[in-house]
Amino acid sequence: MDDTSNEIKREFEQAEKARANGNEGQARVCARRAAGVAIRDYLVRKGIRPPSRSAHDLLNLIKEQAPLPPDLNLVADHLTLRVTEEFKLPIEADLIAESKLLCDWLMKN
Predict the structure, then answer these.
(1) Which of 9, 29, 89, 106 has the greatest count of CB atoms below 10 A from its CB?
(2) Integer CA distances (angstroms), 21 to 18, 95, 108, in order
């Protein structure tokens, strides 16, 4: 397994641990960071220098510039949603599962 895959795997392990401890906010952060790692790798493989280290910035970039399938574009949308004042997502979504789908697609393309 290469460094990128290991880094993504670590983020998802931390996300699952955070969720198990009842810290859904931290789980979302880890899921978003995993996606950021996969996006950086995807861009580098396409010969594009990632313009930012921020997973949020990279998710916004990939929504605009990558030929993502519509369902994965929706995942990128979900990963960039702002939480409510109660620190909850305004939608029902499992960001860990969704981020895994996005990461898998990015690593294969």
Answers:
(1) 106
(2) 5, 16, 32
* Average pLDDT of the segment spanning 15-22: 97
Show contacts of 83-86: CB within 8 Å, 24+ apart.
83/25, 83/28
Q: What is the 3-state secondary structure (H, E, C) of the chain?
A: CCHHHHHHHHHHHHHHHHHHCCCHHHHHHHHHHHHHHHHHHHHHHCCCCCCCCCHHHHHHHHHHHCCCCHHHHHHHHHHCCCCCCCCCCCCCCCHHHHHHHHHHHHHHC
Q: What is the pLDDT of residue 42?
A: 96
Judge contact between 55 and 39, C-beta under 8 A: yes
Domain that holds residue 77: 3-108
The per-residue pLDDT for 89 is: 83
CATH number at residue 46: 1.20.120.330
